[in-house]
Amino acid sequence: MGIFSFLSGNTKSVEKVVDAGISGLDKLFFTEEEKADYNNKLQELHLEFVKIAANESTAQSISRRMICLPVVYVWLLLTVGSVVAELFSLPTEAIKHAVEVMSLPALTAIGFYCGRHIANNFGKKS
To answer: 33-42, 62-71, 115-124 — which is least confidently predicted?
Structure first.
């Protein structure tokens, strides 16, 4: 009787089967109302994230920039070294390769650790 026991007249089991079927069919389709609710919730979560990010502590921001500086200094040193080596006709293959290898980490560090500070102060007059 296992699978078809709901046919025996027990209304609670019939209701459970019908509710499960209706719920499954309802979840197959994403209505306009559900899309609007989803977008509202998404906007609320995004706004909450922006508020948290805007209230970031100053000590944390400063420490992030201090982590960024050594990577950027090495990249700048290699870049300047490459230019100087080019000017004096020295072999530059190794330096150019090092600059190429360090470019992505340095630019990523600048964008990630200093980007918010730079973007906030861009265009401000001191």
So the answer is: 115-124
